[in-house]
Design a protein that fits this description.
heterodimer, A: 114 residues, mainly beta, seven-stranded mixed beta sheet, 11 strands, globular, B: 109 residues, six-stranded mixed beta sheet, three-stranded antiparallel beta sheet
Amino acid sequence: KAGVTQTPRYLIKTRGQQVTLSCSPISGHRSVSWYQQTPGQGLQFLFEYFSETQRNKGNFPGRFSGRQFSNSRSEMNVSTLELGDSALYLCASSTQGSGKNIQYFGAGTRLSVL
Amino acid sequence: AQRVTQPEKLLSVFKGAPVELKCNYSYSGSPELFWYVQYSRQRLQLLLRHISRESIKGFTADLNKGETSFHLKKPFAQEEDSAMYYCALGGDWANNLFFGTGTRLTVIP
């Protein structure tokens, strides 16, 4: 079974631009969660989607948004990029909508904002 | 509020020595605790979870609700255990994990 796939692996953008990251979960997984990883803040939860609905959201500004498609693939969008948005963005998928399930992580998309 | 604390950023032990990575949590509900590991150039992966009560790669972790701790232990460290270890707390119903800041374990040959 293929693992969680994130594209692209690397991105370089400039301040003020917007960016879209993609995540394909493991086949059969309906829950997709997004995390931001930075040296200063560590791993922080962004939001989670289950069956095309955002079920939970972390403490991030509205510039961070996402969506999930009927095939469970998910996209994350960041608008009006700031230097502080430079980070590794991780996506994780899980079978069901419960915090008691194992999350499987992708390799991440490294975003650099110049 | 949910919080996970890993007090040690770096931990070095000699091969064959016991290792303990500390994790304390704060959560008012019924906690679900995990240890995730990230080896060099690999993705974050689950090492173990408290409800499984199993030993993975020689590691064990016991949930102590009285001390709100979930320390990771291994009696004899191996070089291949060198990695970044994250303790994580799962919520009651949604798939969001609260991660500690991580402990980088180095096993010295």
